Amino acid sequence: xxxxxxARCSTPRRRRAAPWLVWMxxxxxxxxxxxxxYERLVLDPAWPDNMALIQPDGGGVNRKVFWMPLHGxxxxxxxxxxxxxxxxxxxxxxxxxxxxxxxxxRIWTFAYFVPRAMRFEDAAVDANAxxxxxxxxVLLSALRTPMIVATVAALWLAAxxxxxxxxxxxxxxxxxxxxxx
Length: 181
Description:
The chain is built from 5 helices and no strands. The protein has helices at residues 5-43, 64-84, 89-120, 127-141, 144-160. It starts with a helix and ends in a 21-residue tail after the last helix.
């Protein structure tokens, strides 16, 4: 067995894994879109005036149970799907777009939304004192939904490219590891 065998095996594995990874990322982002729409349509109209709805210690919805694992999987899956699909320029372009939009949304979420959500979800908080801030949070949070839609769209466009064989203009050149001395 040559020293180059692992390199030869990894490329076909990457190519075989790429469609699964792209489709799984699209599925998880579709779940994020569903969760976002649920919050926009069901929770957000009500909770700023009744914070008990989002306070798990008081019997309210525990949003962390849904969002934390989902975001964790997506944050791991997008770069892995990008790595596996790197040799196809069209797929790579859409995955870079999806990853960039998603990363911007996550940075904004961690910087602004998460710290405030933790305060709102604290059962000991004075709901009246935070009602105005909660309404602002809901208003700004609505801007994240189009970011999720854009990420889903970019992933869908990447997935559409999976059935097309890479042409010479979309694929990186193949190197024959067997020919090397």
